[in-house]
Amino acid sequence: MAEVIRMPLLSDTMTEGKIVTWNKKVGDKVKSDDVLADVETDKATMEINGYVDGTLLYIGVPAGEAAKINQVIAIIGKEGEDYKSLLKEDAAPESPLSTSASVEKVVAQDVNVSPQQIEISNGSNERIKASPLAKKLADEKGIDIAKINGSGDGGRVTKKDVDDYKVLSTENKQSAGENKNAAVPVFMSSGEEGHTDVQLTQMRKIIAKRLSESKFSAPHFYLSMEMNMDNAITARNAMNEVSPVKISFNDLIIKACASALRLHPDVNSSWMPARAGSDEGDFIRQNHHIHIGSALALPEGLIVPVIKFADQKTLSQIAAETKMLYAKAKDKKIQPAEFTGNTFTISNLGMLDIEEFTAIINPPDSCILAIGNIREKVIRKNGIFDVTNVMKVTLSCDHRSVDGAVGAAFLQTLKKYLENPITMLV
Questions:
Q1: CA distances (Å), 221 to each of 52, 170, 358, 360, in order?
Q2: pLDDT digits (tens, 9 = 90+) for 133-145
Q3: Which of 123, 156, 218, 242 could be a cystine partner for 398, CB 3.0 to 4.6 Å?
Q4: Which entry of 195, 220, 291, 399 is annotated as an active-site residue?
């Protein structure tokens, strides 16, 4: 009796499969382990086997076209056998193919459980699930199928599992060179999949809301520059010998940014959308004051303490204020006035050994500066190799209010101040 081959369910999200190629044509002899066709699903391209011996009598879906799940794609039977009645029955409202015992529906697959699935005893009460093709290949290769870890549904062993096991065995033989039957032990997981759902803190909710609005409303572009920090290292060491509070590199950067913003007011600005009910349209607000936000990571999320009028403060004053604000933020004692009002923001991940990154603009700023670590770099100067200290920075800009040339000019000034710190003290 002719047997119908249907499009199998090859993945949990599959609704149809595209026949990439037929490896057999009508009239060809077919063996049970022959690959009839390659099928492209929503996740991968897979092989379809017929699992029956006979002649390919009918191909229902040409190569390049798709078939719905359970649609007839081929019929295999005896040469010259009449199969057309099967197609008529299948097209009927209640197909006899779904209920009749006279015609066996063959699910053509090697990746899901099929009617032809074989259970093999491994010598204990446990049964080993394996496809017919996998069992046949394992027998031919002399592999104990009970030792193969199946990747199919319910741990079923597939053709790919047998092939992969063979590859692992071969590689193990080549590396060991001692035991011809050596095989890599099959990995058996002792753990379980799991997850933990973490409820959002109010801080995390606000961060998600504000930064999502910023990323998807402000057209970001990025400018990167490398700074030579040799003089900054020397200057900081000298300053800390006389400063009443230890000055960090982040404090130096805050002061340098504030000094550069004084010369580039377009960067110290905010894009202001039209107010509801107002006749005024969108406009740009250039801030006369310079308030530098310095991002600080807390377990609950990111907070940005603000050093106000940073351009007017000494490095010692900036250092003392940042330490005080960071401590208050960590103790959850920081006040709203101390983490709002920023006109420019710095995000420094250098202490975490990050070389370079891009940051999302912190509203209402037009720009944010991402700071990487200070690292040694080999250079060649005057025919001699030497080591210098460099730091990469990346400026994220809101293109609505800051153009590329404006952002680049700001970075040039910042570079001048950081590479010669004495110039921002004059």
A1: 61, 52, 10, 10
A2: 777 778 777 788 8
A3: 218
A4: 399
